[in-house]
Amino acid sequence: MIVRRAVRRSTPRPELRRAVRYFLCLNALAIIGVAVAVSLASVHLAREQAVHFAEHSARGMAEWLISPHCTPRLRAGDPAALRALDEAVRARMRDGSVVRVKVWSVDGRVLYSDQAELIGRRYELAAEDRALAGTNRVTAAISELDRAEHEYEQQVERLVEVYLSLSGTDGEPVLFEAYFPADRLEDDARYIGWRLAPLALLAIVVLQLFQLPLALALARRLDHAHRERGRLLEHAIAASELERRRIARDLHDEVIQDLAGVGYSLGAVELHLSGGGERLRETVRRLSATVQRDVRALRRAMVDIHPPDLSVTRLPTALNELAEPMRATGKVCHVQVVETSELPVNVRQLLYRSAREALRNIDKHAHADRIDLTVETFGDQVRLTVDDNGVGFDAADPPQPDHLGMRLLGEAVREVRGTLSVTSAPGVGTVVTVVLPLDDSGQQRRWVPWRR
């Protein structure tokens, strides 16, 4: 029975589109990854720049504002000198960019602070801070605010603490300490980072746009090479098919015909033997049977060597011809096939080969008396099912004989991205299922005639 059903035609050149989509997806992931990395790096760089800016601001404040007021009178605690420095410092702090200012003697005494209660107190300076005295080095870091001198800065959560050394009017070194709000510096860092990130991303996008035509050209070249390889493979297959056809023709026209003639001659010889040659007639009959058996075997081999041309012969007809030998032995072989004229030739050929191998195994091993062979399409796939009611076998302990034909068939099915499965159980028969794709991704071989 033939069931007609529409088969969707495959779309051309999906490999190229997949390669381009793959390239674009990778580019998108690369842009996202680089965007995150650039943003983090920009913020980090901007934070470093902000801390560097704090160092630069502290140095400028120390040289131009603090140093001229560091006189011997300030060291002695003269109120007028302290007041003059305080007025200059508070004018600088009015914009909120500086939170606290301290001027230290090398031995740890606070010579001046905008927090007046700290003036004159002594604290233990850290070794790295004392080491700055008389040098041009500057240290800056987020302060932990965990020392005794920080009792008036506790209300502020995070501060950038900057230490440096400067010289007073008398040449004696003093230490200058300034506190900058960390949140403000980080806001500046984020602002700088967000200004840098778009530039970096724009450069990446422009680079990708320049790469896209190159990628398309490479994809087209690969596609062209793939098609050339396919054409070479098709010609090789066509040449192999011609050679197989020549061998089949030679078998049919010469060897099989000669053996058939020998069989007929042996039959004639048997008829003309005299009655006393019973033993000789039995020998002739055996020879005639052997020749006829060999002729049938050669005819089967000829069909195997040169199967029907499915670009001309319809698949249902070819499958029914495969089933005829099974029916001739009394088996019920039911064939149901969809209208396959629109299936690619290579798919029809592989379906035929799969059905032939399954029927051959049934004939040799299954001892079945009923076989159901079905070909049907669903979506963008076609499925062949060969179901028998034979003895079956345990899937956990498959038969030991070497099923080379099934292994070769499995490789051919996998080459076109299809699947081959065999399910069985003792006493319930065996089901062989072959599923093949109908899109171009699975059609690695498309038949073309060989032309000289």
UniProtKB/TrEMBL annotation:
Gene3D superfamilies attached to this UniProt entry: 1.20.5.1930, Histidine kinase-like ATPase, C-terminal domain (3.30.565.10)
Record GO cellular component, one term: plasma membrane
PROSITE patterns assigned to the protein according to its UniProt record, in alphabetical order: HIS_KIN (PS50109)
One Gene Ontology molecular-function label: phosphorelay sensor kinase activity
Matching InterPro entries: HATPase_C_sf (IPR036890), HATPase_dom (IPR003594), His_kinase_dom (IPR005467), Sensor_HK_TwoCompSys (IPR050482), Sig_transdc_His_kin_sub3_dim/P (IPR011712)
CDD domains attached to this UniProt entry: HATPase_UhpB-NarQ-NarX-like (cd16917)
Transmembrane segments: 20-43
Cellular compartment(s): Cell membrane
Keyword match Metal-binding: no
Stored SMART domains: HATPase_c
Signal peptide positions on this chain: none
Domain Histidine kinase per the UniProt entry, residue ranges: 347-440
Keywords associated with the record: Cell membrane, Kinase, Membrane, Transferase, Transmembrane, Transmembrane helix, Two-component regulatory system
Membrane disposition: Multi-pass membrane protein
Top-rank taxon, per record: Bacteria
Protein name (Swiss-Prot/TrEMBL): Histidine kinase-, DNA gyrase B-, and HSP90-like ATPase
Species, as recorded: Micromonospora cremea
Lineage: Bacteria, Bacillati, Actinomycetota, Actinomycetes, Micromonosporales
